[in-house]
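ok so dumb question maybe but i'm new to this and my supervisor (M.) told me to 'just get the structure for DNA segregation ATPase FtsK/SpoIIIE-like protein' and walked off. so i did the thing. is this what she meant?? sequence i used:
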Amino acid sequence: MLLHPNNTIFCRDTDAVITAPRDVTDTLSSLCREADQRFELLKDAQVRHIKEYNEKFAKRKIGNPEKHRYLPHIVVVIMNLLICLNPKNN
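this is what came out, is it supposed to look like this??
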């Protein structure tokens, strides 16, 4: 995912690029909620890393399986963070 609030895009896959400043802040908020949920899942599975969690999940060695899910890695690149944080852009 590429968060790039000033609309200058040098990327072949523009579907994965978020350029509107309001959308950037909404996306970051969603990612923070996802991170909190993932932290709870890792804690519940008693592991510290996504790789360990996914291995345990695949082997069905996590209690309460209906609560758990496979966790892909999420990569976020933020271009021009100051533009994202500027309140007049929201």
